Model the fold of this input.
Amino acid sequence: MDTFETVLRAGRLNRRDLIKAAGGMAFAAPFGLAAPARAADATLKVGFVSPRTGPLASFGESDPFILQQVRAALAKGVEVGGKTYGIEILDRDTQSDPVRAGQLAKELINKDKVDFMLSTSTPETVNPVADACEAAGVPSLSTIMPWEAFYFGRGAKPGEPSPFKWSFLFSFGVNDFLKCYVSQWNGPVQTNKKVGALLPNDADGNAIRAHLMPALAKAGFTIVDPGGYEDGTTDFSAQIAKFKSEGVEILVTFPIPPDFATFWRQAAQQGLTKQLKIVQVAKTGLFPSTIEALGSLGPNIASACYWHKDFPYKSSVTGMSSKDIADSYEKATGKQWSQQLGATQSLFDAGVAALKASGAPTDKAALAKAISTLKADTTVGAIDFAKGPVPGVVNTPIIGTQWIKAKPGSKFKLDYVITENANDPNVPVGAKLIPYNG
Amino acid sequence: MTVLPKFAVERWTRASAVSGGVAVAVVAALAVLPLIGGDNLVDKLTTLFVYVILAAMWNALAGYAGLVSVGQQAFFGVGAYFAIRCSVAGVPPYPALIAGALIATAVAVPLSYFMLLLRGGEFSIGMWVLAEAIHLLVNLDPLIQGETGTSMIALNAYAHETRLAANYWLALAGMVGLLGAIFVLLRSPFGASVQAIRDDEEAAASIGVSVQRAKRTMFVLAAFGCALAGVLWLATSVTFQPKTNFGVQWTAYMILMALVGGLGTFEGPILGAVLFFLVQDQFAETGVAYMAGLGTVAILFALFAPRGIWGEIEKRWNLRLLPVGYFLRPTGPPKPDRRSK
Done:
């Protein structure tokens, strides 16, 4: 960890330093470069595409750390069918631009001739990469985006056979949110079950409005939906007035982070925050930075996570437990752990399991076939592609959480606690949900 | 009457005759490239051709007809949208792509009657508003599912190499065809009339130029070009996400390429597209610095070299490789070279 320490001591550590440091470490590791060339029968090229800069940068912020862990763990190669394969990971930054994501994927396919493509975080990253792989016949595995937007958002039709042969996803979907929210809202905090829904007129907002809201209504909640707003809206007075007059005590929202900050400040000024008992945010509030940015309005906002350091699962690639991953990240970077750590790690866990299961990882068709029935242990739990919900897609859980003020003496301002576990009872509940206005 | 020195009016100089021949040879070489070139080269060149089309279209609008549009992404996006609609309706992928571009062009015709009533800055802003409006209308289509978008998965029916080559040839044909069309148009009397409108609309009208018709022709041609670029882009990326395909960045790229290459010259936008393509290929990794660099370059060119690189080359060496104007060459006693505008 010397390189990290040096950077840390030198002063503030930013993302770029971290990437440089991670790169330096990989280079300096005595066996890091030599091993695949020496021992391996062949080298497998694996593309890894994620957003590390731009508006989605908080997703990719911890990727260099995970890459460094994974590279070290795979330095001696992977044994498949009696042969040892070196693994070369070609990581690329989309800069949060879907056009660039597609171009990077094509370049990895056409120029670098990758055997396998991994991608993570949001439809803007995953869909263009998966489409490029599907069109080129390169096996592709992704995570962290609503599976409905991956499957139906790329032209698949309900009730028809899957049109995809090469692209696979394990991630959460609308039903996972439903189960999590119903469990969270029927928990220790008593409310009038009136839910204000602040949903933008964008991909996620519309999917949630069409599928999640009716299901929540069926589960006994009254939905107050003032209608879709456009991303980038600066005046939420109308929505706030509606929520106030209807007396909602639960707020559910799927905004882009800057919009939530705008809305939430206006909600505080106009007195809405005082009446809300549960503030359930998704899409924003995934990472400590977005909640810290809200200042005193941040603590007690409820969220949901796709990975948490208290998950009882370990990485099958590095052998590290969820807690180890979070702790070593904090130690190495001085930053608070984030839920993307375990998610990116799980992508490599599943990816390596797929390479092993294929029997012949250089054979693209064999690899795709292996993924279609893959069973793997990952940091987010066991995944099983035979289960569905649709071909080529596995559901992973969403777990209810809450941001609370950290205990005195903590290194960080906020603590992120698990408040329900309806989607995966193996995950330990760490705290009771407390009311936002409590 | 003073005796003027003798001039010959000519169009094809020796340099331009040679470069015309070279252009034909280059196109012929490009046409056979997919048979020998690697996948990556073929795919990258397809991107380059799309950029050339975009740059040439914006130049045709702004550099020749004086229509400064910041909403050309409307046609780029809507062409792709109609292509997907046709594909879903059962049209085979490649005919669907071409149909998409043609339908977008058909949409541009009635739009031109409204948009061309606006002039100058109003037209620029109006085009942006139009692009946003079309974007929102497309979002309302249940097939597109708001910003979720969809993908033209019918393209997956082709083998990888076949699709790459087909995209490449379609892009090459589109580029050569559109550049050829602009070349022929600009050399015809029509070319003189649009440039007259650009330089002074009232004066042009007063000498009998049919202003609206000339502008409309360029508007519709540029709409077709941008829509074709949009469907070509769809063919290479498969993914359609409204926010991306209707992104104002496409017009920003067009402006940058035309401005840097040389606005109002035939060769400039081609040069600009090649440069932009190379810069993007080399420096896009640097992210923020790259974007800031592009912006700085555009500003510097606008301030200090408004006629772009090719404009400067023309001025300095009096070089026109593919002439759309006329040269005056002194045939009498040697005089310094001059050229008509």
